Amino acid sequence: MSDDLKKRVKELIVRQLKLEMDPATIADDAPLFGDADGGLGLDSIDALELVLGVEKEFGIKVQDEEVGVTAFASVNALCAFVRQKAA
Amino acid sequence: MDFQPLPHAFPFRFADGVVERTGRAEGRVRASVTADAAAVRATGFPTAVLAELVAQSALLLQGGDSALGRKGFLAGISDLSVQRLPVPGDVLTIDVSIAGRLGDTVKFDGVILDAHGGAIARGSVTVKQGSA
Predict the structure, then answer these.
(1) Is residue A63 domain-resident?
(2) In this structure, which of A82, B13, B23, B61 has its CB flanked by the most CB atoms within 10 Å?
């Protein structure tokens, strides 16, 4: 999977959610939501912000909550989702 | 500590009624700032109340009853900028549009206008539908 896309997605997450962290420190397969170790601990409010960010950055609409939960499971999942929609 | 929702009845009800609907949960709401409202201080509304005003307007446009009920609660505030605080006697208009939606979470953009049509504040609120 393209490192450029991963970098872009990580930067999007940090920028859109106004996180005070280095995007590079987000692990590719770390869970974005929930309280799992190594995860970002995001919640449903953050999910909506990510939806808006993905729409703005990649021109992809995410309207279904289930799709959102799956697509935003991790950086890897989000990259796969973006690539699938862009194909 | 149990979360107690803010009651949307006077003096905590800031949005009076829908003036115009331009879409589903979008449109224009009127609000009158009265001197005896609990939130009004000598200096005007506290800034946070402006966000609550946008949220109440959004929920009114979604079909919530201004006196008896509501369909959600204010869950987040972003990019709120204030040119001036409302003062008693102001009649405000709040233009609300949907910025995005995911499941029961909806983000609204709001612009609060004074009687002359000038924007006194603008910002976004995120509302969770349902009970807290």
Answers:
(1) yes
(2) B61
